């Protein structure tokens, strides 16, 4: 594992409060409950003077159902407002294990107020498991205070589908607030403190575990942290552990253009026997919709290189589909024509690249030969939805991504060949939502293929 | 006499090798060129029966099956890819976790996953320089560790290691890849059936009824014993569940849920793990709505389901696997994939 992780000190283990201090603890906690303003703060400060062990005593008080609600609430307030090193890991524990939503929400709020950032990874992970909407809102807000937008997707779900109108409104307002504050270019890492780096490295180390539970959690965290961990992941691409290497590569692929700072590191891995194919996909993804000529050129070279391994060529083709540069189109079409009879899986990836690049928008009526080549790739991409041996969902996902951009292009110019895209998305989704005993997955793809045939084939040459 | 004895020894040696390592190809004896294997379909030409068995089993279905497509959101949940389209086990290493591959994902857990060696060779049950794929006898293929990369993700192999089966040398393949005709020379079945096979489900557990303290006046106890599974019943997490239901015998009315055997998915932090451990026996008292013992005749059913949801727990039979093979059980929001494992009537005239 990376030296940066090996050098990281172990997290401090909180000590319990000595028994002789428990009466004083109860007395001071009672004082906090019955006070307000400066006196309340003074009581909290006095509690912390009992020593680090007060943190554990506060958590015990918080979870003690024999105590009054005021006492339990005050215990959490003292734990959270102390900004004390001993409190931080316990606040995280309350966030992840607190039995009541109000505890977890409060813990999230107090964590957001911290200056240090070692808690952020675990807080992002909580987004994966939290089931209470109010906690998700507080978590998203806390993370947002530290310019981590991992909570946005959860907020969007709440804003769309919460049964509570108040929760929907709150989520919408927070989404607007968080997205308005973004000033940093996508993919540009921001400096974080050493506690954050330490936590990131410890999660990168977990990418090498045997049990996928830990790996899945690590992938979730690292992917959602985005640009700020891309440099860490770029270093992890050359880790000694192949599992760490490959899963770091997956994280970069999943974060999309937020991982663009790792593009050069991915290029270096294209020659790696085990990582190369995955690095090719990730390279195309992190450089998507950008002017990154080196990525495009390398991926095209790999696709054309018949001496390269099949996996690497396939990965490169999928990378080109993610990269979506119109400058790739000629090379994609040329190789598609070579492969369509001899290697359908590579031809499928190249046809997907043609659709992903929106080749139909590139048609040039003055060059009917080229239009015919574009249309052949589109026909193949339609056929892929019902061709034995090919994965319909792979091409289906590319079709879905093409509907909106193509429809938008139609609105910008008079492009009759794009007209079918105006209604395709709705019809496509309607087929996916149809439920009935006769309508299985295969039938769904056949129906979608028929939809594309009826809509697109008439405008293809 | 000596030549005859020599031939006998040679025949015994050959039989012994076959017994140890399984099927013999029985093919030509002239040296054949090695062929490269870029797809499991390459294997079908010589191994048609094996290919057919594999094609109808869950390994072949691991990327394309309706259930996994539904549960993974067409693999938009990319975490599922590692085990559902893995690189060759011999490449990632025995007992190591598998890694996902880029190509041929539609072939799922295929011939190459288990038989491809890192140097391009083919692991098999015997060594031969004379057949096209030039197999190398590789005992690791038969060991439980070989399955662990995927199947120990949810402790299935560990459950087996902790069982008497492991001590007795009964491996995964003894149940999931039985000898085709009862002899090693016939080779092993490659269907890899388990929870997809009713006979295997039925042989995994026994369900019995008895009276509390054996007194006919007392209420019913339902006893279930894991007699045949080499691991917990069911095994794995998340989706697989077995449920006991009961209702008064002769009634067409509502069923009452008695117990669920299931390991919760990782998101379900408040759901207990209730798998029936290997060799374990558990008993459940049958109580009515007022928690009073039920003494009259009852009908009991054990259902197995690959997705743990029923539309109506008082009418679980509406979610039975469709009798019409043309009907997709996963086409509905709540899949119709329940299987009756055991059904018994206790008391009364039976």
TrEMBL record, chain A:
**What InterPro entries does UniProt report for this protein, alphabetically?**
ARM-like, ARM-type_fold
The record's annotation in PANTHER family points to: DEOXYHYPUSINE HYDROXYLASE, PBS LYASE HEAT-LIKE PROTEIN
What's the protein here called?
Answer: HEAT repeat protein
Molecular-function annotations in GO? oxidoreductase activity
TrEMBL record, chain B:
Q: Cytochrome c-552/4 domain spans which residues? A: 43-115
User: Source organism's superkingdom?
Assistant: Bacteria
- Signal peptide residues are none
Name the InterPro entries for this protein. Cyt_c-552/4 (IPR023155), Multihaem_cyt_sf (IPR036280)
Q: What is this protein called?
A: Cytochrome c-552/4 domain-containing protein
What does the organism's lineage look like at the top? Answer: Bacteria, Pseudomonadati, Planctomycetota, Planctomycetia, Planctomycetia incertae sedis
């Amino acid at each position: 594992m990376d030296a940066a992780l090996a050098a990281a000190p172990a997290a401090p283990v909180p000590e319990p409060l000595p028994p002789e201090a428990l009466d004083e603890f109860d007395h001071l906690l009672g004082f906090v409950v019955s006070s307000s303003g400066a006196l309340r703060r003074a009581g909290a400060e006095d509690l912390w003077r009992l020593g680090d062990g007060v943190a554990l005593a506060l958590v015990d008080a918080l979870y003690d159902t024999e105590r009054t609600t005021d006492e339990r609430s005050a215990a959490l307030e003292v734990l959270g407002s102390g900004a004390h090193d001993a409190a931080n890991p316990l606040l995280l524990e309350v966030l992840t294990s607190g039995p009541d939503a109000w505890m977890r929400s409060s813990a999230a709020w107090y964590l957001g107020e911290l200056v240090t950032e070692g808690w952020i990874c675990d807080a992002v992970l909580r987004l994966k498991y939290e089931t209470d909407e109010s906690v998700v809102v507080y978590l998203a807000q806390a993370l947002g205070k530290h310019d981590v937008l991992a909570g946005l997707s959860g907020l969007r779900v709440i804003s769309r589908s919460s049964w509570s109108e108040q929760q929907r409104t709150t989520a919408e307002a927070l989404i607007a607030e968080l997205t308005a504050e973004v000033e940093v270019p996508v993919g540009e890492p921001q400096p974080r403190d050493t506690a954050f780096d330490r936590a990131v490295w410890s999660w990168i180390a977990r990418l090498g575990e045997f049990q996928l539970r830990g790996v899945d959690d690590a992938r979730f965290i690292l992917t959602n942290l985005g640009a700020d961990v891309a440099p860490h992941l770029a270093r992890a691409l050359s880790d000694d552990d192949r599992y760490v290497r490959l899963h770091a590569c997956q994280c970069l692929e999943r974060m999309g253009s937020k991982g663009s700072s790792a593009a050069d590191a991915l290029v270096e891995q294209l020659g790696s026997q085990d990582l190369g194919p995955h690095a090719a996909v990730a390279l195309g993804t992190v450089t998507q919709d950008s002017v990154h000529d080196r990525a495009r050129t390398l991926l095209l070279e790999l696709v054309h290189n018949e001496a390269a391994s099949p996996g690497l060529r396939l990965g490169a083709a999928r990378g080109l589909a993610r990269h979506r540069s119109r400058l790739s189109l000629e090379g994609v079409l040329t190789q598609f024509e070579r492969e369509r009879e001899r290697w359908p899986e590579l031809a499928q990836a190249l046809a997907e690249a043609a659709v992903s690049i929106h080749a139909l928008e590139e048609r040039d009526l003055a060059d009917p030969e080229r239009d015919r080549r574009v249309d052949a790739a589109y026909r193949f991409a339609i056929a892929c939805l019902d061709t034995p041996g090919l994965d319909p969902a792979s091409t289906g996902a590319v079709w879905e991504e093409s509907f909106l951009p193509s429809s938008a292009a139609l609105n910008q110019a008079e492009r009759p060949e794009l007209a079918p895209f105006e209604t395709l998305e709705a019809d496509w989704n309607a087929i996916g939502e149809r439920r009935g005993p006769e309508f299985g997955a295969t039938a769904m793809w056949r129906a979608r293929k028929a939809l594309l045939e009826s809509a697109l084939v008439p405008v293809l040459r | 006499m000596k030549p005859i004895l020599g031939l006998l020894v040679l025949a015994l040696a050959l039989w012994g090798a076959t017994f140890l390592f399984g099927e013999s190809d029985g093919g030509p004896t002239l040296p054949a060129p090695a062929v490269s294997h870029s797809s499991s379909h390459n294997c079908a030409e010589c191994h048609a029966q094996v290919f057919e068995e594999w094609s109808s089993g869950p390994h072949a279905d691991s990327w394309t099956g309706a259930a996994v497509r539904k549960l993974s959101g067409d693999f938009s949940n990319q975490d599922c890819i590692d085990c559902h389209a893995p690189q060759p086990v011999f490449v990632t290493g025995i007992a190591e976790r598998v890694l996902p591959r880029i190509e041929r994902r539609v072939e799922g857990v295929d011939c190459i996953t288990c038989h491809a060696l890192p140097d391009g060779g083919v692991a098999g049950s015997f060594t031969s320089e004379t057949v096209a794929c030039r197999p190398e006898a590789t005992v690791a293929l038969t060991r439980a560790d070989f399955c662990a990369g995927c199947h120990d993700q949810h402790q299935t192999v560990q459950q087996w290691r902790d069982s008497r089966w492991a001590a007795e040398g009964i491996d995964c393949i003894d149940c999931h890849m039985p000898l085709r005709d009862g002899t090693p020379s016939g080779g092993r079945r490659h269907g890899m059936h388990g929870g997809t096979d009713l006979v295997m489900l039925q042989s995994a557990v026994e369900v019995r009824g008895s009276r509390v303290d054996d007194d006919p006046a007392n209420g019913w106890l339902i006893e279930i014993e894991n007699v045949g599974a080499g691991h917990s019943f069911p095994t794995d997490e998340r989706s697989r569940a077995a449920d006991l239901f009961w209702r008064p015998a002769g009634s067409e009315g509502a069923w009452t849920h008695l117990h669920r055997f299931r390991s919760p998915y990782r998101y379900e932090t408040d759901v207990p793990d209730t798998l029936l451990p290997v060799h374990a026996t558990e008993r459940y008292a049958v109580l009515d709505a007022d928690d009073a013992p039920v003494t009259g005749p009852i009908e009991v059913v054990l259902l197995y389901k690959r997705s743990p949801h029923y539309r109506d727990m008082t009418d679980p039979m509406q979610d039975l696997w469709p009798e019409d093979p043309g009907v997709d059980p996963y086409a509905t929001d709540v899949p119709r994939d329940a299987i009756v494992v055991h059904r018994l009537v206790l008391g009364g005239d039976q």
